[in-house]
Amino acid sequence: MSKDTYLKLLKKSQVLDRLVQLSSHVGESEQQVRRLQCDQARAQCVQDRVFAELDRYRRQATDAQQQFLGLIQSLTALCMREENDTVADSNGPEDVVSAEDQTLLDLQRVSSPTSKSTSCSTLETQALATVGRQRVQQLEAICARYERQLDGSEAALSQAIYSDAARESAARIAQLEARDQQHEADKQALQVQLELARGQVSHLQERLKQTQDRRTTLEHANQQLEQELTRHTTATQRVQVMVMRRTSWNGL
């Protein structure tokens, strides 16, 4: 086997080894991509669930605010009706009266039981206002609690997202470090194989040189033998010619 043929075969074997290594790395990369996709889908599911909880808390807070506004409107309408009833009772059936008639009406209203009903209406209005303030305070407390829950949910969501991102980052860093270590090990193995191949090439080159030197020596010896054989053949032919001449002379 010649040197060129050996080098071609060596290059082909190295290329095949490299292709096998690349195919194995591609398979590992595909597995890592599938694992990362599964982790991403799991994180997306957790995130969707947390967002759903957050939306539910927000809807509860919105419902509480709407209930609070409805209660305020009801209390306001009730107070306005009470005030209108009080004003209607105080005004009487006539729209415009004189100052003297107004004075008489005031005196009659003070002395009549209507004043009691007016005072009772005022007390009812104050009681309703007190109850309304209490309900407002209760609703404010409910809204504050919902806001705290929302803040807590947002903080928990942020913490969960940060924790997931941190875990994913740590996992990716670990995978990259492992991949770098694997690449470094593969590189060292390739270096060792390269050194072995270089040693084999040097040994084969030395053997090839020795074979070529031996071949050159054999060719030189063959040439010498051919020259000796040619000289011997020539000498033999000369001797035969001389013998034939002597024989012919003796016959004469």
Give an overview of the whole structure.
The chain contains three helices and no strands. The radius of gyration is 57 Å and the shape is rod-shaped. It starts with a helix and ends with a helix.
Taken from the alpha-carbon principal axes, the silhouette is rod-shaped
- Poorly predicted ranges: 93-97, 102-120
Fraction of residues in helices? Answer: over 70%
Number of domains: 1
Number of helical stretches of at least 4 residues: 3
Strand content: under 5%
Specify the biggest β-sheet: none
Which series of helices and strands comes N to C? Answer: HHH
Structural class: mainly alpha
What is the C-alpha radius of gyration, as a whole number of Å? 57 Å
Through-space gap between termini: 66 Å
- Tally the beta strands: 0
Mean pLDDT, as a whole number? Answer: 71
Helix and strand layout, with pairings?
Blueprint: H1 3-91, H2 99-111, H3 114-251
Helix pairs in contact: 1-3
Keywords: Coiled coil
Coiled coil: 136-235
What's the short story on this structure?
The chain is mostly helical and 252 residues long. It is 95% helix and 0% strand.
